[in-house]
Amino acid sequence: MQDYQHILNEIYTTLKKVKTKGEVARYIPELAKMNPDHLGIHLRLITGESFSTGDTNIPFSIQSISKVFSLAKAFQLMGNKLWKRIGVEPSGNPFNHMSLLEQENGIPRNPLINSGAIVIADILLSHLKNPKDDFINFVRELTHDDTIDFNETIALSEKRTGYNNYAAAYLLKSFGNLENDVEDVLDFYFHQCSIMMNCAQLTNAFVVFANRGRCIHNKKHLSLHKVKRINAIMLTCGFYDEAGEFAFEVGLPGKSGVGGGIVALLPHYYVISTWSPPLNKKGNSYLGMKALELFTEKTELTIF
Amino acid sequence: MQDYQHILNEIYTTLKKVKTKGEVARYIPELAKMNPDHLGIHLRLITGESFSTGDTNIPFSIQSISKVFSLAKAFQLMGNKLWKRIGVEPSGNPFNHMSLLEQENGIPRNPLINSGAIVIADILLSHLKNPKDDFINFVRELTHDDTIDFNETIALSEKRTGYNNYAAAYLLKSFGNLENDVEDVLDFYFHQCSIMMNCAQLTNAFVVFANRGRCIHNKKHLSLHKVKRINAIMLTCGFYDEAGEFAFEVGLPGKSGVGGGIVALLPHYYVISTWSPPLNKKGNSYLGMKALELFTEKTELTIF
Amino acid sequence: MQDYQHILNEIYTTLKKVKTKGEVARYIPELAKMNPDHLGIHLRLITGESFSTGDTNIPFSIQSISKVFSLAKAFQLMGNKLWKRIGVEPSGNPFNHMSLLEQENGIPRNPLINSGAIVIADILLSHLKNPKDDFINFVRELTHDDTIDFNETIALSEKRTGYNNYAAAYLLKSFGNLENDVEDVLDFYFHQCSIMMNCAQLTNAFVVFANRGRCIHNKKHLSLHKVKRINAIMLTCGFYDEAGEFAFEVGLPGKSGVGGGIVALLPHYYVISTWSPPLNKKGNSYLGMKALELFTEKTELTIF
Amino acid sequence: MQDYQHILNEIYTTLKKVKTKGEVARYIPELAKMNPDHLGIHLRLITGESFSTGDTNIPFSIQSISKVFSLAKAFQLMGNKLWKRIGVEPSGNPFNHMSLLEQENGIPRNPLINSGAIVIADILLSHLKNPKDDFINFVRELTHDDTIDFNETIALSEKRTGYNNYAAAYLLKSFGNLENDVEDVLDFYFHQCSIMMNCAQLTNAFVVFANRGRCIHNKKHLSLHKVKRINAIMLTCGFYDEAGEFAFEVGLPGKSGVGGGIVALLPHYYVISTWSPPLNKKGNSYLGMKALELFTEKTELTIF
Hints:
4 copies of one chain form a homotetramer. Chain A is an alpha+beta fold. Chain A has 13 helices and 7 strands. Chain A has a 5-stranded antiparallel beta sheet with strand order 2-1-7-6-5, with helices on both faces. A two-stranded antiparallel sheet of chain A has the order 3-4. In chain A, helix 5 (114-127) crosses helix 8 (163-174). The model of chain A has no long low-confidence stretch (mean pLDDT 94). Chains in contact: A-B, A-D, B-C, C-D. The A-B interface holds A 95-99, 101-103, 163-164, 166-171, 173-174, 182 and B 95-99, 101-103, 163-164, 166-171, 173-174, 182.
């Protein structure tokens, strides 16, 4: 067996020396306040062992990583009916998200771009009894940690400035692909994005996708059929316009968020999370991407 | 001189026989209630004589025709500073209005498409003391008719269902091209679109654009420089994705609205308005377009 | 009557002082050799009087201005059947010419963009007995000048480097909108673009569009119906992505070419040609545009 | 161990009953002649065992599957320099391939779309001594079968009708992203696509991508680093606009061709090829896709 702790330490040391590492997300005022120097990496094998280096116990806003949780919950609830309102293809072009929605009659390309996640939020709003409570409980259950919660300040901050999400939501509404009021859907969506988790918690939560639908306490939450499909979507759509690049350089299904977090996994083997707030031009954590490239280069453990 | 009354009568008789004439706009519930059989044509020469046939005294919702009034008012107030926030080029492609906004960083193509008119509404909101009052008074002054008013029912109807306009407004906001709150801008915009006028009133109001900036009572409202530019924009951008077709088949600057109205003019000669609610696929009054084609074919009086 | 010679002289003097005036077209090697300092303006009233200043007797490559001649000839031959293979709407977006062709199934937006003019060339190739001879004779007839000819060096130069036109032609062919071989169509097209004319000749040739279809020797070449439509297309589509701007600032139907020439006209009044090789970013002669803005500002003679 | 022969037989029996199965590609006349009823599936484990059912010994035109061979060869020759002229992101939108090329300055999205494969062909033409011979020998070497060859009739057939590829190639040339003449590049490209192989040969050839760069005779052709990246590109870009769907439903890196062939593989485990000429609307073999869905459903052996 490889010496994972040593590998994580090596990566940490290498990355700590990197000077140009992008910029912290500025468009959500609360996120702009993050210390750019945080760096954490947490690994958990499917066998249960964990390895950790750096700031893996400091919670951060998981942002778009939450889209995997909401997809999982909606898929659990609705099964394949989900795909009437949303696709599974990569979005391709950074310059025409609105245009794609227009051309494709309000059916978002996939559940991991904003418009797709807004449709998922609408579905959860329609199908969960107490949407916010039920959703946070689902995340807590996956993680086995009841301290996980929304960050109201961040949710509010995004609500005040998230004009682009309002534009997408109203466009979806104009095509009849939102059942609920835009304000209600976005309130749920901004809360979902505001969830605070640390690297260790994220790693634990994603074990369900690496372990055939079973969480860290071995409870079955999702069928293998669904887990495989969620992983496929993460691989082809999980990194905005850099999904191909991530598959190419890292070779794992995963998801990033503008809070600087990334989670990735090798089915049947491991889950790994990284956190470093500065983002590259595509909106993914600069050092997080590097960390995962180094990890799969050193271990040769990828899906390819 | 040509016998204009005879020409209008002939056109009216011809058009009354047309059976397939498109469909009344359905997306605004209040507009869907219009009687599709209304047909009116009103002509006014620059010399003051008027000719009329059909339903020219029944007020209807002028909708997008109001964009010419708001453009005129904003141009009057701001001069060429206007063109920092808005272009003067035709929009071209019906399938990518949102995409154009995205690609062109939130600068709408021209003031006669919805996104452009929303920017103009934002400008008026910032520069008029009592925006709605001042604006309706401007229209009344051009028309010399104090009975002209907003239709609150239509404004409210559009507010409840105008998701596409909300999407455009939030996209503009996300690019920093709206100063005021989206709700306030759209409240003004929906009111402006709801103005009720009949063919005779519309014709009178547009005399200002045919008569070098002077209204029917000969008061100077706009410089010749500005009037020429407003006419140019009407010609290249006044009929959505059918602007080229209108220039080609009719050959006059003009503007249509989904309420079924069209106004067009030959500078220094005449203004003509038509009203027939059913629309063609491009959203312009089917019989109105035909009426204007017949009129310019018979009189040979066009700008070309 | 206005003192036109004085006005032309004033404009010439003003423009000669302009320093930053864009760059000569470089993509056709032969054109890159032009002296950037040439400047000529030639005006002809419908009554026959002519006024001239600067280099109005030096022939230059008319390039895209030839598209108006080929459109006129094809319209003369085919009538409205033409519009089955080509539209009359402005193209709008500089970034997606190929995409528009793709989305609109190989039907070019209008006859004055390259893809449209290539379809027109295909039509002429199918319908003229001796295509190149018949076409040059048509231009000579309009101009009453038998010295006008193709420039084989320029035609060849463009043939060797006109990859973009090859791409457009093959895309048209893939949609079944070219009857002839791509090589034959482009050979005709590159020859048509290579025609050499000076400002005086261009002005004379375009009298047919200002004088209800009659050329300078009063022969009827085109019906008024057709002339009006050609003028409408020039106005809405004659200046690439700057058509709205030209209508806005100048207010005349016209056509530009990358050789630095521009022709414009006021129906029933006059034709005016300018030549200055350096182009603005949109591909239109920088000083030519300025000259026409100044001319219509000073004379107030525009279609608006 | 699973009974693979039994699984293949079951799939074969199931698929033979399917009636509506799409249409054979018609745009290449030679391909249109294929018998739509052919169906073959061939599986090879990394351990060397093979399993076969149906028409697995009849050669067919591999078409786009050849793009994986040309990518492998070019990557072998050039290493990461390749990525200066070509991307690794999915193309996303079926409606704007030309537009993407335009917007992205002639850099194709990835090596498995036509424009990307044309750039690869250009690179091979520049770097191979005897391009066609060297390339076919590379494929023969991977397969250990010297009978594999080009089909000149198919290559010629495509050359005569492949206008869309000419359009793409000239567009690339206009952006300076082709070094060689368009005719030469496309001659190579059409030959590469015309290669005839059967399911068994394709399976054998692709072992190199499943076996860490070693072919069936254990010779090392590519580094693990390169093999992983080629697999990643196959997964994200191998099925035109259905790449996400294939990842979602099948979960393997793979590549399809309009000749009706598909090859897919699970690294370290197996390679599987299918052949059935009728295509679905996205251009992928209808029954081939079904066969692979069934295979991974029954075996649960996917990368996810």
